[in-house]
């Protein structure tokens, strides 16, 4: 009998460098979620991680032709698909 497992959503902080993806959902507390949406990280937006600091936090993202930095904690609240 086959076993069915729920798919674990992929998070932005888990992507390798330069891998394009699409935002599917933004989670987190209301103020953090609102700020991420204001920065352009709305569902359907293409995003890629273009840089990581030497200690792994923050991440540099390319969103709609602009670059922004996010803490890894905040990037873990963003669900993506490849």
Helix and strand layout, with pairings?
Blueprint: E1 10-11, E2 21-26, H1 30-38, E3 46-52, E4 59-63, E5 66-70, H2 72-75, E6 78-81
Antiparallel strand pairs: 1-6, 2-3, 2-6, 3-4, 4-5
What's a quick, concise take on this entry?
This protein has 82 residues and is of the alpha+beta class. The chain is 16% helix and 35% strand. The protein has one domain: SH3 type barrels.
The portion of residues assigned to helices is 10-25%
Q: How many domains make up the coordinates? A: 1
Largest sheet, described in full?
Answer: 6 strands, antiparallel
Mean model confidence by pLDDT = 88
**Which strand-content bin applies to the residues?**
35-45%
Determine and state the CATH class: Mainly Beta
Decide which structural class fits the backbone. alpha+beta
Question: Order of strands in the sheet with the most strands?
Answer: 1-6-2-3-4-5
Rg is 13 Å
Would you report the number of β strands?
Answer: 6
What pattern of helices and strands is seen along the backbone?
A: EEHEEEHE
How far apart are the termini? 30 Å
Please state the second-level CATH architecture. Answer: Roll
Shape descriptor? globular
- The H-level CATH homologous superfamily, spelled out, is Ferrous iron transport protein A (FeoA)
Report the total helices.
2
